[in-house]
Amino acid sequence: MEATGRKRRKFLLSLILGLGGLGLLARFFKPRLPQTPARLDVPRQEVPPHGALVYRQARVALVREEEDFYALDLTCTHLGCTVTVTPTEMVCPCHGSRFDRQGTVLQGPAERPLRRLEVRIEGERWVVTG
Ligand code: FES
């Protein structure tokens, strides 16, 4: 009886140590994915409610409407020109595609909407990646 109990304890201990070792190995061999670098980092108070800010060099428009806040990539989905933002819409100067404030195509030749970028809040800042 005593020998069976000892064997059981030894087996359980081996099992626990083995699983712990596997966990460590898995963690060690897990590839570390690089964090997507920030494309834009903006103080939250800079973006007015019901407004938009354009960062032409980064090709990003930050748009804030009611509770909705999003970032659009201003790269035209037709052939890659930088889209110009007007108070009512976004227009591509190259071939005349037009997009609404959400980036939806109003007029071609572009067929796909402007790409939405990932935005996360870090303290008092908006960080745009993608
Ligand atoms: Fe924008 Fe052609 S590149 S419409």
TrEMBL record:
Residue ranges constituting the Rieske domain according to the UniProt record: 39-128
UniProt keyword Transmembrane helix, yes or no: no
Superkingdom assignment: Bacteria
Record keywords, A-Z: 2Fe-2S, Disulfide bond, Iron, Iron-sulfur, Metal-binding
Signal peptide span: none
Entry's Gene Ontology molecular function annotations: 2 iron, 2 sulfur cluster binding; metal ion binding
One Pfam family of this chain: Rieske
Cofactor(s) of this protein: [2Fe-2S] cluster
Gene Ontology CC: membrane
InterPro entries: Rieske_2Fe-2S, Rieske_2Fe-2S_sf, Rieske_Fe-S_prot, Rieske_Fe-S_prot_C
Protein name (database record): Rieske (2Fe-2S) protein
Originating organism: Trichloromonas acetexigens
